[in-house]
Amino acid sequence: MPLIRLDRFICSQLPGVSRSGVKELCKKGQISVNGETERSPERKIDPYTAEVAVLGRRITYKEHLYIMLNKPAGVVCATRDGLSQTVIELLPPELRRQGLFPAGRLDKDTVGFVLITDDGELAHRMLSPRSHVPKTYFVRLEKPICPGAGEAFAAGLTLLDGTKCLPAELICSQKPDECTVVLHEGMFHQIKRMFEALDNNVIFLKRIAIGGVKLDNNLPYGGVRELKSDEVKALTSAE
Ligand code: URA
């Protein structure tokens, strides 16, 4: 791992702390490296092994952040938007690092699991057309699901505009107008368009899993938490 400057390291790990802020903290003797007060913000350190503390608080280096958000309705999956609140704006200040973006989009009225990260490589792999990382959705419909819908999804449904979908799973529930759908691709408004092709309408849509990672039931709408290391591993190794 190449060495990096102490001020760059601190700014990358502590959102809201600027280079001039680090300089000030160094001047006041409030930063230590490996237990020794460090007064030079230019000091080069190995981010993985150096023990850096700011105001006595140790910083654990994270190259990337992986954040699970339970997206509420009315919020857009974008980094910036002139009109609506974005998923990035829901992040608490301590997680608002530079470079974070939503890896994949849900419609404004769709709720549930959005992965927010600054790991471009992972996002690219998850979102590329050749990636078939399954995404699981809970769906409530306007009308009961028609007979044969499961077979139609499994065979690869054709949308009203002629687009052919990859095979998908439709799992019925106790209620005739509710189901779970697993997609292996992510076309625009895909689930809504799939049910339109079956003469039905989606009235509620929630993403409940990405790959093998389930949305945490303890997260309220708008709630976030960092992924655990086994969850990150499950996503980074998913095809
Ligand atoms: N399918 C949709 O129709 N909308 C979403 O937000 C996600 C999947």
Descriptive keywords:
6 helices, Alpha-Beta Plaits, 239 residues, 15 strands, Structural Genomics Hypothetical 15.5 Kd Protein In mrcA-pckA Intergenic Region, Chain A, single chain, nine-stranded mixed sheet, elongated, binds uracil, alpha+beta
Question: What would you say this structure looks like, in words?
Answer:
- Residues 4-64 form the RNA-binding S4 domain.
- This is Pseudouridine synthase.
- It is an enzyme of class 5 (isomerase).
- Belongs to the pseudouridine synthase RsuA family.
- It comes from Candidatus Faeciplasma pullistercoris.
- The protein is α+β, with helices and mostly antiparallel strands and 239 residues long.
- The protein folds into 3 domains: 4-59, RNA-binding S4 domain (Structural Genomics Hypothetical 15.5 Kd Protein In mrcA-pckA Intergenic Region, Chain A, Roll); 65-130 and 222-227, Pseudouridine synthase I, catalytic domain, N-terminal subdomain (Alpha-Beta Plaits, 2-Layer Sandwich), CATH 3.30.70.580; 134-210, Alpha-Beta Plaits, CATH 3.30.70.
- The chain has 6 helices and 15 strands.
- Strands 7, 8, 9, 10, 11, 12, 13, 14 and 15 form a 9-stranded mixed beta sheet that branches.
- Strand 5 and strand 6 (57-59) form a beta hairpin.
